[in-house]
């Protein structure tokens, strides 16, 4: 045992211990970096986690489309931008304008309706149609996604925002799922 202690003393005194200390320090640095990086992806590409992110609003439901629409006008995204979907509500204009049916079925199967489009002031009206036909019929009070495409020279209603022409691309339930507003039908 004295010989082992003597050889360590000789190594320390001769300067050979510096290599051992340097090597130990390098190993500690490598171990620390591996520990810090343990939860990060190995490449620059993001990886999918084992569990998909859950929408915090998932499962939250309203009693009907008009209730959802009112809340969306107050708290939802109401930015009116070309080619960006926005929430709309099918309106019953039959009594107001003396029209027989609030939803018109066109020859190609698409449906034409008047919508209230979500905005902070409670909404504005546009004339819209579904993007395709042969889908479930729309009814007053239905919640939809409407995509504004372009503006007309004149507004159909009193509000100048009503100059927008667009298409209805989806019908929604008045509730949220893991992807956002629950889609019932795509048009």
Q: How is the topology of this model organized?
A:
Layout lengths: L1 H13 L2 H20 L28 H11 L10 E6 L2 H4 L6 E2 L5 E7 L6 E7 L12 E9 L12 E14 L2 E7 L1
Parallel strand pairs: 4-6
Antiparallel strand pairs: 1-3, 1-5, 2-3, 3-4, 5-6, 6-7
What do you see in this structure?
The protein folds into two domains: 2-36; 65-186, OB fold (Dihydrolipoamide Acetyltransferase, E2P). Helices cover 26% and strands 28% of the residues. It is built from four helices and seven strands, in the order H-H-H-E-H-E-E-E-E-E-E. Strands 1-3-4-6-5 form a five-stranded mixed barrel. The N and C termini lie far apart (87 Å).
Written as H for each helix and E for each strand, in order along the chain, the element string is HHHEHEEEEEE
Identify low-pLDDT runs.
43-47
Return the structural class.
alpha+beta
Do you know the CATH topology of the largest domain? Answer: OB fold (Dihydrolipoamide Acetyltransferase, E2P)
Largest sheet: 5 strands, mixed, barrel
CATH class of the largest domain reads Mainly Beta
Number of strands: 7
Number of helices: 4
> How many separate domains make up the residues?
2
In round numbers, the mean pLDDT is: 82
Radius of gyration: 32 Å
Distance between the termini: 87 Å
Oligomer: single chain
């Amino acid at each position: 045992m004295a010989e082992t202690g003597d050889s360590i003393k000789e190594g320390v005194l001769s300067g050979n211990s510096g290599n051992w200390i340097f090597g130990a320090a390098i190993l500690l640095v490598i171990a620390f970096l591996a520990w810090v990086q343990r939860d990060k992806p190995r490449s620059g590409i993001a990886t999918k986690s084992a569990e998909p992110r859950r929408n915090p609003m998932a499962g939250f439901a309203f009693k009907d489309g008009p209730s959802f629409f009112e809340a969306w006008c107050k708290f939802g995204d109401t930015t009116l931008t070309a080619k960006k979907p926005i929430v709309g509500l099918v309106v019953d204009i039959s009594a107001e304008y003396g029209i027989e049916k609030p939803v018109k079925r066109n020859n190609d199967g698409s449906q034409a309706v008047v919508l209230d489009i979500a905005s902070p002031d409670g909404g504005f009206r546009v004339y819209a149609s579904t993007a395709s036909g042969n889908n479930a019929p729309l009814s007053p009070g239905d919640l939809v996604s409407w995509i504004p495409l372009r503006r007309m020279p004149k507004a159909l209603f009193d509000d100048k925002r009503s100059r927008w022409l667009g298409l209805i691309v989806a019908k929604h339930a008045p509730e949220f799922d893991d992807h956002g507003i629950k889609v019932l039908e795509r048009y």
